[in-house]
Amino acid sequence: xxxxxxxxxxxxxxxxxxxxxxxxxxxxxxxxxxxxxxxxxxxxxxxxxxxxxxxxxxxxxxxxxxxxxxxxxxxxxxxxxxxxxxxxxxxxxxxxxxxxxxxxxxxxxxxxxxxxxxxxxxxxxxxxxxxxxxxxxxxxxxxxxxxxxxxxxxxxxxx
Length: 159
What we know:
Elements: H1 2-15, H2 21-31, H3 40-91, H4 98-103, E1 122-125, E2 139-143
Antiparallel strand pairs: 1-2
């Protein structure tokens, strides 16, 4: 309780201190109609610095988005290839389409290609002479349908 009384009394003592000369000059300048604030040059310097920082940040942001999409693409391709192999070993024949993987319960749905943003994939059919079931060759491999080139210089259609 005594600490509270001491704090209140110190605030009262501070409020009774006369204003400094800088405060009086600021109040006098406002009274004469002169405004205090930033000049045009100061504002332009600040805006220029902000623009420079933003122009440096945008390419870094875009590259990180592309890197994330590539990681999702590689994950989706790995999942699809694993599921195709599992289907082939279980059924003793390769799937004829990606929809076979969904209808037989190996996938809930066909994953999206994050580069093209669609569920269309470039399908590589197996050679009939090397197929497990030579009468019905099926899907051997899968690639992206994108014609773009990845950050590592490899086209997405070859990953």
